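Question (not urgent): is this output format expected?
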Amino acid sequence: MKEYKMMNNVMIPMKDDVKLAMDIYFPEGDSESYPVILERTPYGKREANDYDIDNPKGQASSRQKIASFYNKHGYVVIFQDCRGRYDSEGVFIKYFNEASDGQDTIQWIRRQPWCNGKVGIMGFSYTSHAAMALGCLLSEGIDCMFIDSGGFSNAYFSGIRQGGAFELKQLIWAFLQAQVSPAAVQDPIITESLKSEDIFAWMDRMPLKRSHSLLRNFPEYEDIAFSFWEKGTYGAYWKQLGINTSEYYDRFIDTPIFLISGWYDPYVKTILENYEAFSKRHQNPVYLMMGPWTHNNRAMTIAGDVDFSAEALIHTGYANSYQELKLAWFDKFLKGKDVLPEDGKKVKIFIMGGGSGKKNDNGTISHGGHWFSADSWPLPNTIFVSYYFHANGSLSDKKSTLSESFIEYTFDPKNPVPSIGGTITSGEPIMRGGAYDQKESDRFFGSRKPYLPLEARDDIVVFQTSILDEDKVIAGPIKARLWISSDCKDTDFTIKLIDVYPISESYPQGFAMNITDGIMRVRYRNSFEKPELMVPGEIYEVVVEAFSTANLFKKGHRIRIDISSSNYPHFDVNHNTGDPEGKGQVMLKAKNRLYVDKEHASYVDLPIVNSL
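Got this back:
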């Protein structure tokens, strides 16, 4: 095999005779066969890859450079274009062909003379979705997996929808990917049509509908987004291979799996749920690593406007670099080398917080943080403490003594609360993920002059603790139980956990840092399979879940919970009419009430870690 290093555009048949394209990179050496590392991607098997950057100031790595790294260590590396993307044949249907096509690909690889029978899978984001879909279908044939920020546990609950609401990143993703689809590449008129669309104007025009959206001239990709949007009820569609691993946990291949993501990544819930499921069911090792990162930024110390210090870099967790971490994983389970850095713990969690709070030269706040190793997630010594909401805006572990009390606000779907950071990806240029001071500005879509703090809005209800007299670590899932009513048939309720910095020389108005958030569409309060509209004026209990997190609230800070009814454009806006998802055109203002009395004690359960 020394006579060649690479095979370009190798076309291999799937079971329906559609051929998919792959590039195969070979190591130099005298061996006739090698272990193989596979990645299946919709983003182009030869396109530059920004998630493998190890240098925060570096440029995106070429596929050739990535392959060369593993070739030098004795691996064959394969990048394959997903069906209907770039050089592969067929029609691209987002997510749903990946299990079957992956299975056919693995079987083909294992028949080749240059494969020694050992195959590892690596993935990030969509390529992790493709890898996990394959794992649901196979009982053997994969010797280990490295899954980064993807691999839906259940896309209905995180990744496509959340709490019944639709994540609008799916619409923006479809718009951006349509521009590099085979049809657009072959027809410059289509490309120019898409690029001429004013995405900001379209997102401001909400509500959108099929045939009347920024993708109206490209129905193949419009259908991708609107199919997810319109199917609001949980059922057979959402249980399909490709978007739901949880339905297949009991048959998922038992193979070593490394799971990694960040607290400001949209796949927090996915990674943690998959970890908990596999660690209980599998005999093979399952590792977990959660950093303070946004999607694909493990080589950065910054997420949004917040700096987590040099400790945030991956080398302080497990390995000297991201690539070396993956290499160590493959070396251990594809070659049997005992090279994986070990401290006896399989869980590494980055606890955010503890920094000086000063403004850095680059304008970010020094929030700090540190790594913590554990045997499991949630962390040991965690207790859930109920913090109650009070009419005066306080948040405490004491229940209200009032016999009747509520807070009312008007939610206008034509003036939704703007998304300022959070677990967002694929949202540029409309929205961005990460941690920010919760203050409107021209950087955030939907913000309006004079750009006041979000707490100044009359449709956000703010509750906060007294000034903390000691450090408090909150690490785990966040869940609020709210007693609510509305004068409409349906509405949304949102929660946001915030770390409130005191005023300082660096920040004379303080700094309100978003930690995590969640949303709940009230029609799904009792069941995601059988929605029930409200009777206006009646009181209901709803549960709103935010993604898990890990943050040290420093002495002198406050813990704050914001409650509202929108978070746009992260999520679609509820029209308050009860109309079918993604189709209604009428919007109503809703008068929403949050009850905070002794009979209807609304509260949030916070996971407090007593000792680390």
